[in-house]
Amino acid sequence: MLIAKVLRVPLNRLVNQAVEAFVRKRTTEVAMNMEETLKLLKARRAKDPEFERAVAEFADGEASYGKADPAEGEVERKRGPAQARVHDLLNGKLG
Questions:
Q1: Residue 11 contacts residue 4 (beta carbons within 8 Å)
Q2: Using one digit for the tens of pLDDT, what is the confidence trace for 19-64?
Q3: Between vectors from CA 75 to CA 74 and to CA 77, what angle results, nearest 5°?
């Protein structure tokens, strides 16, 4: 790489320095984000120490969907060939 030749340093050292700078910057950003999140959590806990309101909001949200909850999955009973083979092996059918 041209910059490594111009600076007369191994490319590996340049990469290591770049990664170190990136990690240092991201660590600072993440730490600030975590501090803000912690501050928000503490404020919410001060307003609702037992999380009663949060639990009630969650329950109301879940109940509002009824049986049409898009996050609820369906059990798939049909097995593909790989699942059938694993099922057979687990049940002692080695054939």
A1: yes
A2: 999 999 999 999 999 999 999 999 989 998 888 988 999 899 888 8
A3: 140
Q: Distance between CA atoms of 52 and 42, rounded to whole angstroms?
A: 15
> What ranges in 1-95 are assigned the alpha helix state H?
2-7, 11-47, 52-65, 81-90
Cβ-contact 14, 7 below 8 angstroms: yes
Pair of tokens at residue 87: 């099922």
Token couple for 54: 């949060």
Between CA 66 and CA 90 the distance in angstroms is: 37
Token digits of residue 56: 């009630």
User: Is 15's pLDDT higher than 90?
Assistant: yes
pLDDT more than 90, % of the chain:
41
**Is the Cβ–Cβ distance between 3 and 14 less than 8 Å?**
yes
Statement: the pTM of the whole predicted model exceeds 0.85: no
